[in-house]
Predict the 3D structure of the following.
Amino acid sequence: MTDTFAHELRLDQIRDGERIDLIADDSERRAIAKRFDLDTLDRLEAHAVFSRAGDTIRVQGRLLASLAQSCVVTNEAVASHVDEPFDLMFMPEPADEELELGESDCDVVFHDGARIDLGGAIADTLALSIDPYPRSAGAEAALKEVGILTEADASPFAALAKLRKTDET
């Protein structure tokens, strides 16, 4: 998928210690909101610093976003703010060998040896930062109204507590 927030940077132009600020414009925010099924994306910014070792580029910074998602229960808009640090490692695509990534390597993005797509990686970082199951303030009441139990009500301990209450009466 071609990302409208693609901010491709040539490897030969990235300098160690360089800073960059990416701020998505209206059309980029609308496209990202559509891609991630958000009601709105009013703000998307990334402030980052590059460090490099050969063809490996490390980008550390902060992601800021303001958005709204639909509640998974009521479909009401749920406002959310993202203010997250990120640490991305852009590495050359491995030849035909298998590459094992450890837990600390989960934010590795492979590049073609000529460019990195920082905007695409930032958009993906946003997707990992948002709540996958947003709930509005009225979600619990709506669930209760249709007879769906909360986790606390459905737990085995809740059933034992009910038995204890009936024994005491």
Notes: The first helix runs from residue 26 to 35. The CA atoms of residues 86 and 125 lie 8 Å apart.
